[in-house]
Structures are given as C-alpha cells and as structure tokens.
Amino acid sequence: MPLSRRTMIASAGALLGSTFLPAASARPPNRAPSVPPDSIPSLADAVSLSDIEWLARQKLPHATYEYIAGGAADEITVRWNRESFDNIRIRPRVLVDVEKIDTKLKLPGQELSFPLLLAPTAFHRLVHPEGEVETARGAGRAETPFIVSSLSTRRFEDIARETTQPLWFQLFDIRQQRREFITSVVHEVKAARCKALVVTVDAPVTGARNRSERARFHLPEDFETPYYPDRVKRRQVGGLPVSGSSTWDDVRWLQSITDLPIFLKGILTREDAGLAAKAGVHGIIVSNHGGRELDTVPATISVLPEIVQATGDRLIILMDGGVRRGTDILKALALGAKAVLIGRPYLYGLGSGGAGGVARVVAILRKEFEMAMALSGRRNLSEIDRSVLF
To answer: Which residue is catalytic, options 128, 187, 218, 289?
Structure first.
C-alpha cells in the first residue's frame, strides 16, 4: 500500500529519534557490554576494565558512583576522550622477533617497570574504608607509582608505609595566602620519600557537575582531608574554588622552595606547554581533568602531537584522559608521551576489590600493552614511534 506524505514524515521522524536517542536500557559508552550480571560474578572473572567498572557500580552507593564516573555538563569531552583513541588505527609490522618484550621506563629519580602511573584522585575513603592507604597497597602489588592527591583522606606518611613503589604528591592551591601551609606540606611529603610534585593547573573552580548534582552527591559529615581542610567544609559539588587563581609566579615560588621535580597537570595548548618549558619545570601532564571541568575542550590524545612538537625534548610529557586499553597506551607513546596516567579505572578497582582490585586493573592494562607491543612488532619502548600508527 503506498505511503502518504504524512506517514512518510512520521516514519522518518521515528527513525531519526531512534538513531540519536539511546534506548533507556542501553549501557552508557565505555561500560561493560550487555551481558547477564552473573557472567561477571567476581573480580577474578573480570577480563577488561569495563568489567571492573561494572562490578564497582554494583557495589558502590549510587551517588558515589555517579560522582566518580561523571564529567562536566553534557560530558562531551568525556566521550571525545574515548572516541579519539578509538579513531586512531595501529599499523602493525610482522615477522619481528618479539619473544622478549621490555616495558621499562626511566623518569626522574626512578625506574618504572611499565609506562603507567596512578593519577591523583580525591576522597578514596568514599570507595574503601582504608582510603589511599589501600590504594598504595594495590600500587605496591602492581609495581606502579601512585600520585597522592591534596584531597587525600589519609596522611602521606601513612600511605608511604604501605608501598615500596614511588609516591608523588599533587597540589591544587599554591597561591600566596597558602604558602606557609604549602611549604610545610612539601617538607612533610619529601621526608616521607615523595619523588615528585604535581601541580594541577586546570581547576581554579570545579566544573558544572550536573551528574553529581542530580545524584545528590555529598561528602560524609566526618570526612577529613588533611591537606585541604577548607575544601570539605562546604558540601556542595559545583562552583567551589579548587586551585584558585594560581599563576606562573606561584609556580616559580614553588620551584624556589624545593628540589623535587615539578610536573604541571592540565596543559592542553602549545602556548601553555611553551610557558611551562620556559619556566623550567621538569614536565607536564597533558590532561583535561578526565572531562570533569570544562566541557567541550578537546580530547587529550588529539592535542598531544602539537604539544610534543612545540616542546621537543625540553619537557617530560605524560598524559591522561580516556585510557582504558593497552592499545591506548601504545597510541599515546607513539604520539610522544613518555607514560600515561589512569584515574577512574583504579578507583573502580579499589571499590570492587580493594588493593587486589587496583592491582588487577594495572595487570589487565599491562598484559594488553605487552600484547599490543608484540602484535605491532615493537620489542621495547624506544621502538614505539609514529610509525606504529596509520
């Protein structure tokens, strides 16, 4: 029977609607595939980072999960972080002797067994009663450096006792009015074997955390953050000052009070990367804060090449944002990063299995990365360059 013009228009509208609006039952991107829940009964059965996220989602309070998983506003940058990795194609070489794969990497004052660090993330006691102490135990098992956040719920010296791996420490607010306090913190963490400092520079305030707000997320009343006590006096999620209006003068001041290597986290442009090199910091972390601050900034992997080109070998360049597979690490190193950081994935590991969950996340990524190196014909990190990619 021929279709009327009205019927055709209605049918087209329905088709477009089904194309752009996901079904209510569909899983969000980058989560575990649609499988029966009992097909991943425990951490030991998890074979990917999305499996571990699925397990954590079952265990964590809804508001806590939404706080960790959520990004800023419409979460467009969160999506781009993954899509940009997915759109990069690997160019494998064959008939290469890949019997032995070497993943070791040297950074200032330390050697990493694998080019991965645990990024600074806040409030670990939200997902495990031992908080950052338990994370450090997992980092120790995984032989992976852990960057402790200023919004840690445990003191640095307590965390340091639980791991033989290098610990770094992250700072948010280094403005003049906090200099006496920051000086004491820097001395404290150095005395406890801190290997480097990371200054987060992309969060003068928090972004529009709509997802957290919808979930009515708030910190427990008894929460304590020893290195940022003022931060938790207010329980709202959005609009809080985090680093405040820190400037390049504050970075120079920090350099004057310590000989620890300093990395600036949150660089997304060649201009700021050039200023970082001029300031004489050891390195930068190309980061968009996991898409949690300013929505619609680009994916980190997409801006990495121009930053590497602008800075040459003047800086050690690390990156984070959307790393979920060993192939992602291969791609980041091919585009010039020395190593990558992960944040949400190891929190899901912590929430689903404590230290064992953290170690499991790293083990999965390490195995995948070694497989990606072998399958692309690369035997060590020095052989990973732009020729790995189409």
So the answer is: 289
